[in-house]
Each structure stands twice: as structure tokens, then as C-alpha cells.
Fold this protein.
Amino acid sequence: MRNLLSANFMRLWKEKVFWILFSWMLVLGALFPMLKKINEIKTNIIETPDSAFGQFAILIGIVMAIFCSFFVGQEYSDGTIRNKIVVGKKRIDIYLSNFIVCVFVSLLMGCVFFFTYFIVGIPLLGGLTFEPKIVFQLIMTVFFLSVAFSSVYTMIAMICSSKSITAILSILLAFLFLLSGLYLNKMLNEPETILGMRMEA
């Protein structure tokens, strides 16, 4: 297990997809508060950096769908999984090593996004308006969400031997999760009662 983890992390630092997604999260973390500031200037509506948690929750599903598909799927295309099984590695160890690396990447992406978002956003938009307890709960929630996404996409990548099919399924599932979440959020925000109007002649 230790050797599998070591090999996976060594491969991770050489993975182009990882660095592309890492840079993307870095840029988006700095870009979002700038766009909020521009919107604040145009509309005179005060923006706060508190919406960062929701924005990251939307991004991480798509980011991890791409990463898990390429990182784990490459083991099938290169024949690495077959070689690991031939030398006596257990399937559960192979799965767990891939899962741990994907979870690590999802948490790292979160740290990068929040770091750049708050470094740029707090000077532009001011401090957080939520209580520290609420901020901590939101951060833990989005990190647990990242772990959940990683587990689902790792499972898909381990089951499917085609990297392209894995990528398509994972990205479609990411958008399905996104649309389902938006729909559920809309339902939860609906008022308990609807005011009706009656017209009398």
C-alpha cells in the first residue's frame, strides 16, 4: 500500500492535467472576487466574499470529474493496473491508493481556491459577514463534498477501462449533480405558503 501511494504521488507531480487544473483554480480564485467588485461598481449593490463556498461547490464537481478520469483512467490505457495485479498487489489496495490521491487533490484544490479568493477578495470586498463558526461549518461541508465527489469519480474510473468513456460519464454526472442541486435548492427556497388573489366582479 505504501509503495502504491508513493508511486501515485510521484506520478501526480508529473501529471499535466493536475497542473492545468491547479492553475485554473488559482486563476478562478482570484478572478471571482474581481468580477464581484466590478458588479458592485456597476450596480451599487454591496458584494461580500461569503458566496465563495457555493462557487467552490459548483467548481469542484467538474474539476474532480476531469482529474479522476484522466489520472485513474491513464492506468488502464498504460497497462499499469494490469502490472500491479500481476506483481501481487491487491485490488482493494490499488483502489484505496487511487482514492487517497484523488481526495488529496480535491482538498488541495479547495485550499488553493479559498487562499487566492480570500487574499484577493477580502481587500476588495471587505471581511466575511458570517460568524466564524458558520464559516468553519461551510468550509468543512465543501471539503466533505469534495471527498464525496472524489469517491464517486474514482469508482467510475476504476470500473470503466476506457479513459474517454470514463471522462464523458464523469463530466455528465457532474452536470447532473449540479442541475439536481440547483433544482433542490430552488425547492428549498420556495415559501411555505403562496398568496392567492381572487378577482370579484
